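Q: Can I see a sequence and its folded structure?
A: Here is a first one.
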Amino acid sequence: MTEPLPSRRRGILGRLRASFLTGLVVVLPVGLTAYFAWTLVGWIDGWILPLIPAHLQPEAFVERYFGPDANFPVRGVGVLVFLVFTVIIGWLAKGLFGRSVIKMGEEMVDRMPIIRSVYGGIKQVAETFFNKTEKSFDQVCLLEFPRSGTWALGFISTKPKGEVAHRLASLGPDYSAVFVGLTPFTSGMLLFVPTKDLTFLDMKIEDAAKLIVSGGLVYPLPKDQPQP
């Protein structure tokens, strides 16, 4: 007569466990996203706020308007200053005076052996990612990597240029630059692969990135299937 009690307990615990996991699926993405945003804003504030005069610091405004006993964190001021400063610099760089100043600064940097290499690399990456006239990572593909018979997701990058393109042209067919991201996408490899050996996919860049980051757990849904 006491047999149903254990199964009843297991049923309650099972429902509680299922509810906990469902809540975790809802709370974890929101919590991690909010934590990442809060940390990023704090990092930018910590970089920008020391450059602002003391009487313009957020703490000075809080003390001035709420009294000396007020103590609560104010974040985002450094982000706002950074955005305004960047917009002003971009506006000045479009003019003749700004271009002249940038050219003079780059000529000075070219005379510094180590600094010019770092500056040149960062500038080239920034121009590649933010240049509106040239797309980067505009298509997803499958390629055999790291050996024949095993396949990896790759992102089609810009076409090979310069000496690399010249050397590859002497090897035979058309080549494409493919970036292969490694889980959890903290690093990757740049490969130059014959275009004919690539299998192009209709998958979006964001969906492919999610698939790599999740280690194959999050697959994109078909276009005709509604999101859960």
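Q: Show me another, different protein.
A: A second, unrelated one:
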Amino acid sequence: MSTHRITVEVNGAVYKRTVSPRLMLSDFIRHELHLTGTHVGCEHGVCGACTVQLDGDGVRSCLLFAVQADGSAIRTVEGMADGPELHPLQAAFSAAHALQCGFCTPGLLMTIESMLDELSTMTEPEIREALSGNICRCTGYQGIVEAVKATVDSRRKEGR
């Protein structure tokens, strides 16, 4: 079996690993780097639970091979908080009760954060449409939409 040497930056740390060409990025993150905040749901790119940011864009890590991320910067949910201080989006999720079981939450956070600038100009129906690629079976999405709006409003007040 052939292997490939990859170098990736994950949450600011550089990792050099030798991987199978068929190793999914989600499995690399979870099993090679032991960052288990990236959840694997459907393994078909439909549910959004495995969303991470690859060079700033939200991507489904279950649809990419680890070798495709060679030379890229990856951000997972573990890279959001600043030590014990929650990222403003995480704090908004907590305040709006935007999570229940929490399985979808990391993927939602990664998706939303990568789209915050775009979301700032959207109406509630447009926000819901933008998040439709992330499935949550518990919350009914109202708390999630409220958290997005609160984060967008806070950023607007800060001039971002």
